[in-house]
Amino acid sequence: MQTQHIMRSFDEELKFLANQIAGMGGHAERMVEQAVTALVNSDTGLAAKVVADDAFLDEKQREIDEKAVIVIARRQPMAGDLREIVGAIRISADLERVGDLGKNIAKRVSAVSETRQPVRLFRGLEALSDLALTQLKGVLDVYATRSADKIALVRDRDNQIDAMYTSLFRELLTYMMEDPRNITACTHLLFCAKNIERIGDHATNIAETVFHIVTGAQMPVERPKEDKSHRVTVDNPDNNGR
Question: What is the model's pTM?
Answer without folding.
Answer: 0.87
